[in-house]
């Protein structure tokens, strides 16, 4: 004869496995990101004639992966807090003020000046001047009649 506690334990184990499998089959996999996404960034550096500054040029590309156009006001690379960075935040803001059509790309480019005086080549190459990228958008969602009719 089968022990009742063994039968209950086996039944509970079987139910636990069954519930675990059903929950894992219901969970979704990776969800595709829709909207404006960063796809590529190129950065190159060259030094000026006297060797006291380096100029980093960048080209950043974004892709609208959604089904609708996205209105973008500005794209702004935010600089890291490294004290050798000379460029100002204001000079990096790119005014777009237009739509990025669905399925298309938008690119911005610019330059960042680095004070390379008293720094080795390795120290300069280790600088990551751009910390993140801010994208601003203001768009009229719906125009309501006021006062209501």
Secondary-structure blueprint:
Layout (H helix, E strand, L loop, with lengths): L3 H23 L9 E12 L5 E12 L5 E10 L14 E7 L4 E11 L5 H5 L4 E7 L13
Antiparallel strand pairs: 1-2, 2-5, 3-4, 3-6
Protein name: DUF11 domain-containing protein
Account of the 3D structure:
- With 149 residues, the protein is α+β, with helices and mostly antiparallel strands.
- It has a domain at 36-136: Immunoglobulin-like (Sandwich), CATH 2.60.40.
- The chain is built from two helices and six strands.
- A hairpin with a 5-residue loop joins strand 1 (36-47) and strand 2.
- The longest helix is centred in the first third of the chain and has 23 residues, at 4-26.
- The chain starts with a helix and ends in a 13-residue tail after the last strand.
- This is DUF11 domain-containing protein.
**Main beta sheet strand tally, sense and closure:** 3 strands, antiparallel
Task: Count the E strands.
Answer: 6
Give the neighbour order of strands across the main sheet. Answer: 1-2-5
SS content category: alpha+beta
What Rg do the Cα atoms give?
Answer: 27 Å
The helix-strand sequence is HEEEEEHE
State the helix count: 2
Protein name: DUF11 domain-containing protein
């Amino acid at each position: 004869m089968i022990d009742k506690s063994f039968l209950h334990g086996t039944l509970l184990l079987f139910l636990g496995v069954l519930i675990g499998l059903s929950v894992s089959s219901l969970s979704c996999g990776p969800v595709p990101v829709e909207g404006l996404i960063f796809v590529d960034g190129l950065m190159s550096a060259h030094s000026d004639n006297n060797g006291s500054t380096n100029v980093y040029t960048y080209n950043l590309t974004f892709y609208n992966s959604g089904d609708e156009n996205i209105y973008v006001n500005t794209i702004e690379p935010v600089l890291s807090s490294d004290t050798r960075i000379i460029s100002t935040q204001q000079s990096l803001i790119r005014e777009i003020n237009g739509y990025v059509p669905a399925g298309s790309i938008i690119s911005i480019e610019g330059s960042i000046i680095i004070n390379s005086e008293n720094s080795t080549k390795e120290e300069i190459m280790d600088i990551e001047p751009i910390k993140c990228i801010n994208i601003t958008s203001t768009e009229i969602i719906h125009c309501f009649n006021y006062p209501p009719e």
